[in-house]
Design goal:
about 375 residues, eight-stranded mixed beta sheet, six-stranded mixed beta sheet, 20 strands, globular
Length: about 375
């Protein structure tokens, strides 16, 4: 490896942005490329960040901006479809007692905060750029980009998401698989009575839930059995979500009244992925959704991606050689924790799909969240 190492980060989502900031802080030269011209700065509705995600965001130096932009809370309510509150549980503070249990945020706001942190780090950023090929040898990787240019790097971090082209290009054959559920999401104004996440089980959907994302905004979602997306015209998205949501009481009528613009409604499937054996091939290393993903039943997707970035950056800046042993150590440190989250997240949904009524949902959630209090 050269005395001044260079890293290419492919993908400007949570994992890619985070590892870029952390490596730049240690003086590593980083080029970040992102396929989307707008850096996904406006995509998505809301995101739930639990304490272990906030712990990494604090390490990145953006916690205060996140705190000011989001909505912190410490409990989750379980309701009947008519809105009757059946139980309120305190959330486990997975990031430690000095951080909130949970912060809800508008996803575009979080992305803009991370974009600003990358810009401030001094990394070189190229938007609208894809990596087309990776030619490796014992010393590094020559990357050819879509515009015909090339770059030479000591390491490539593939953080290009669930459909990672890099993962396939380096010969990792694992692909995401649908779990059987689909989710409708929308951002709306926040009713005054919404101060935490509430989840309604039953009714026409498996789950109807919402999470406050600021003093004035909210993220609402409805989970049902997956449908063929090609059979649902995008112009009907608001009608479809409103039809499902209209069966729920409590704060839902006020939320449902704002589900009017189909362009603001997102429909997607729940997927699962866990790359087994190793998260690298040579000097190309997977991180975030390129290596694993899970349904949002535990709200841990972004947290696992951020933790990947933290652990990988810690190892890369530890003074150790960037070799097979280091990349293997990264995998071995992450896989037990990520596997537990992926399997628990999938199991929670599967119990609903199978109609299991005596499942130990609180026990599984409690065990998983308690484990996540430990440092990654």
């Amino acid at each position: 490896m050269s005395t001044s190492p260079t890293v290419l980060v492919v993908g400007g989502g949570a994992a890619g942005n985070a590892v870029t900031v952390l490596l730049r802080r240690a003086g590593v030269a980083v080029d970040l490329i992102e396929a989307e011209d707008d850096w996904n700065a406006t995509a998505g509705s809301g995101i739930t960040l639990q304490g272990n995600a906030l712990r990494v965001l604090r390490e990145l130096g953006v916690w205060e901006r996140v705190r000011e932009s989001g909505y912190g809370f410490g409990s989750v309510g379980i309701t009947a479809p008519d809105g009757t509150v059946l139980h309120v549980a305190r959330d486990i503070r997975t990031g430690g007692d000095d951080l909130p249990a949970t912060v809800g945020m508008q996803r575009p706001r979080l992305q803009r905060i991370l974009i600003d942190a990358v810009r401030e780090s001094g990394a070189t950023v190229r938007l609208g750029t894809r990596a087309e090929s990776f030619d490796q040898d014992g010393d590094g990787v020559t990357v050819r980009f879509g515009d015909g240019t090339e770059g030479r790097y000591d390491l490539v971090v593939a953080a290009d998401g669930l459909g990672s082209a890099t993962r396939a290009a380096i010969g990792v054959t694992d692909k995401p698989e649908p779990t059987g559920m689909g989710i409708w999401r929308v951002a709306t104004p926040r009713p005054a009575g919404v101060t935490r996440t509430d989840l309604a089980y039953g009714g026409p959907a498996y789950i109807a839930g919402y999470c406050p994302t600021s003093d004035t905004t909210l993220y609402a979602y409805v989970v049902e059995a997956k449908r063929d997306r090609a059979s649902i015209p995008p112009e009907t998205y608001a009608d479809e979500m409103r039809r499902l949501a209209s069966a729920y009481g409590g704060c839902w009528p006020e939320i449902t009244a704002h589900i009017t613009d189909p362009a603001t409604v997102n429909y997607t499937w729940f997927d699962r992925l866990l790359v087994e054996g190793a998260w690298h091939r040579g000097r190309v290393v997977l991180a975030g959704d390129a290596a694993h993903c899970c349904p949002p039943t535990l709200a841990q997707g972004a947290a696992m991606s951020l933790e990947d970035a933290w652990v990988l950056a810690e190892l890369l800046t530890s003074g150790r050689a960037w070799d097979e042993a280091l990349f293997r150590a990264y995998y071995e440190r992450r896989i037990p924790r990520v596997r537990a989250v992926v399997e628990a997240s999938v199991q929670l949904g599967q119990w609903q799909l199978d109609g299991v009524r005596d499942a130990d949902v609180p026990g599984l959630i409690g065990r998983t969240m308690t484990m996540l209090r430990e440092l990654p």
